[in-house]
């Protein structure tokens, strides 16, 4: 086919030129290929070409023997059970029938076989012209339907962790009823539906009416309505002090120069984070602390252990590999990270950056090196290039407090809840921000039920709809902006299951990302998914109204997001070995890389916070005017004073404390 396309491209180009030059077109063709060969090529091309209505399903029958290599074993091994809907039951019965026919070593599909699962796309292949059922395409259709049904919950496997019945993910019903009767539901909301919904209904009406009044009376000059869409005036960027750049250079110019190895050692002396890297069998701390810190640094810098051993005097590859195998894993990284985050949060100077009550989350993509096996996972932003996402939660004090490794094709929104619930630091996050891609209607509902204020950055505000309980005509000035009505009835009918679901998430019975991802994948008729979406629309409307009215909210959200996103530059600088590629193929190894990078970032943020305070005190003693308004524009993300490269010299510093910190430089450039 490629040969023909190349040939006809040449012929076409010759004909175009011949027309432009008013030359003989036949002579032009024969300069490319002799006429007899050209005629034969056309005949061959007709044989190669597919019909205009060609469907790839036409070719599947050629691969039936290949599919049979695993389909028979698949049906023997697992028992596929159906959810309550008809499509699930039909498919479950079809899979049982195929299993029985396999045991009989052959046989046709009976005329009364279950076929409700066969969608129109497959019907002309499954059903023959004489009314009989094609065995091969029936099996193909069942397997393709099984793939989708496992994802959306129509089919489940009792012995599976990933494809269980939905209710099996939740808190066992007797345990849930016991909590409910004792009024110990661990959710920070009113659990009586009537009381809860009454309060939210009144609040929604008040906010919609207030927006209606403001628009009607022209009291929102930056907001215009056109063709049923909001148009907000451009947000004015908050002005930074004119001398901010000079201030940054002045303050950072006093920070001591330090090797990254010494920085890690000093932070460990102050926080004791290394004690959490316990042996996975004995629970003992690592006997060789320097080897442990070197292995952590190797993860953070994306450096192979053998290369780290070569660059570290006195440490061998065997030492580093042993401590990495037995002491370094996701859970130990999480506990160690919490120590650094807690220490930084308690430093008085950290209050200049924020109160530690709000946070943001953002994904940073890193390419995956080696075999391009992930190339079939297409991401609209990154195309076919394989990669993974380090999804990081950062506090408004710049500390990264939770890290996850996710696929670049995964929706980030469900993973946002994980960080808020499962971090091990002492931060008490009340408000969380994401960019436009980090939210869905369901996530608004989830955050509300879990007690978090969810405030994403809404860039495409004009495309968003408001929702009401009642009629849109009650708010005439904004009625064109109001979409569907919120179904209080649907929420009420599923209220108990919603409470059970989020109690299960809160207590750790199931992770938020897993169960919310499943709900998002479930078909529209899934009642619990619908109810959560309705609740989310209510909460999203409340937030959208505030976003439209309150420019301070817009600035605050943007500022917190900028803090999290600015950490990406530090992470990219640290993760520079191996061309910044993640070459581990195992998830746990990838998580270790991400966790090492996050820990190293947190150590630098903590170290900088500590010495920025000392530098500011020294400058104030010299008479510099350093008000809190100026200091809020500083960040602890600088790294130019930190030596990240070269040989890694390791030396413990016994007795290092806040009372004997490194001396500051006397002036910038020392």
TrEMBL record:
Record keywords: DNA recombination, DNA-binding, Plasmid, Transposition
InterPro entries: Tn3-like_transpos, Tn3_Tnp_DDE_dom
Ranges for domain Tn3 transposase DDE: 262-648
Transmembrane residue ranges: none
Family: Belongs to the transposase 7 family.
Record protein name field: Tn3 family transposase
Lineage: Bacteria, Bacillati, Chloroflexota, Chloroflexia, Candidatus Chloroheliales
């Amino acid at each position: 086919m490629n040969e023909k396309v190349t040939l006809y491209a040449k012929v076409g180009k010759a004909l175009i030129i011949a027309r432009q030059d008013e030359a003989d077109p036949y002579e032009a063709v024969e300069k490319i290929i002799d006429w007899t060969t050209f005629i034969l090529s056309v005949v061959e091309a007709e044989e190669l070409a597919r019909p205009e209505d060609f469907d790839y399903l036409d070719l599947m029958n050629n691969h039936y023997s290949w599919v049979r290599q695993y389909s028979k074993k698949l049906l023997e091994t697992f028992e596929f059970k159906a959810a309550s809907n008809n499509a699930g039951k039909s498919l479950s019965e079809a899979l049982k029938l195929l299993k029985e026919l396999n045991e009989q070593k052959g046989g046709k599909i009976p005329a009364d076989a279950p076929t409700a699962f066969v969608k129109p796309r497959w019907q002309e292949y499954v059903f023959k012209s004489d009314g009989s059922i094609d065995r091969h395409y029936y099996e193909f259709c069942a397997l393709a339907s099984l793939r989708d049904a496992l994802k959306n919950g129509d089919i489940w496997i009792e012995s599976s962790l990933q494809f269980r019945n939905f209710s099996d993910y939740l808190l066992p019903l007797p345990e849930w009823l016991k909590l409910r009767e004792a009024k110990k539901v661990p959710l920070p909301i009113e659990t009586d539906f009537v009381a809860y919904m009454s309060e939210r209904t009144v609040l929604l009406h008040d906010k919609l009416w207030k927006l209606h009044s403001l628009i009607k009376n022209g009291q929102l000059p930056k907001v215009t309505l056109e063709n049923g869409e909001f148009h907000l005036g451009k947000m004015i960027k908050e002005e930074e002090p004119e001398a901010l750049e000079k201030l940054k250079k002045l303050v950072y110019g006093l920070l001591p120069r330090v090797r990254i190895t010494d920085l890690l050692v000093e932070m460990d002396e102050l926080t004791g984070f290394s004690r959490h890297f316990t042996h996975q069998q004995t629970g003992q701390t690592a006997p060789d602390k320097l080897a442990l810190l070197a292995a952590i640094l190797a993860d953070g810098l994306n450096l192979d252990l053998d290369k780290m051993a070569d660059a570290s005097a006195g440490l061998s590859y065997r030492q580093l590999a042993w401590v990495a195998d037995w002491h370094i894993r996701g859970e130990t990284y999480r506990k160690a990270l919490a120590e650094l985050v807690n220490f930084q949060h308690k430093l008085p100077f950290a209050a200049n950056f924020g109160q530690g009550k709000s946070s943001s989350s953002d994904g940073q993509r890193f390419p995956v090196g080696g075999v391009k096996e992930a190339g079939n996972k297409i991401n609209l932003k990154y195309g076919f290039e394989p990669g993974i996402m380090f999804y990081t939660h950062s506090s408004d004090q710049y500390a990264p407090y939770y890290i996850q490794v996710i696929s670049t094709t995964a929706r980030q929104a469900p993973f946002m809840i994980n960080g808020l619930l499962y971090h091990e630091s002492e931060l008490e996050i009340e408000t969380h921000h994401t960019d436009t891609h980090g939210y869905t209607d369901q996530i608004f509902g989830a955050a509300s039920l879990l007690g978090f204020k969810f405030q994403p950055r809404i860039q495409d505000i004009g495309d968003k709809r408001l929702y009401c309980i009642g009629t849109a005509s009650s708010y005439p000035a904004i009625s064109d902006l109001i979409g569907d009505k919120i179904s209080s009835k649907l929420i009420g009918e599923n209220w108990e299951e919603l409470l059970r679901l989020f109690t299960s998430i809160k207590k750790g019975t199931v992770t938020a990302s897993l169960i919310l991802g499943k709900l998002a994948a479930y078909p529209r008729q899934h009642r619990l998914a619908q109810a959560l979406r309705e609740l989310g629309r209510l909460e999203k409307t409340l937030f959208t109204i505030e976003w439209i009215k309150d420019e301070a909210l817009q600035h605050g959200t943007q500022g917190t997001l900028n803090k999290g996103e600015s950490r990406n530059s530090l992470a990219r600088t640290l993760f520079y070995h191996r061309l910044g590629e993640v070459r581990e193929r195992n998830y746990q190894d990838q998580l270790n890389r991400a966790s090492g990078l996050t820990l190293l970032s947190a150590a630098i943020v903590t170290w900088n916070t500590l010495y920025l305070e000392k530098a500011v005190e020294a400058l104030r003693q010299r008479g510099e005017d350093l008000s809190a308004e100026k200091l809020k524009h500083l960040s602890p993300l600088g790294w130019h004073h930190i030596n990240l490269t070269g040989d890694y010299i390791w030396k413990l510093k016994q007795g290092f404390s806040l009372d004997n910190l490194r001396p500051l430089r006397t002036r910038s450039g020392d």
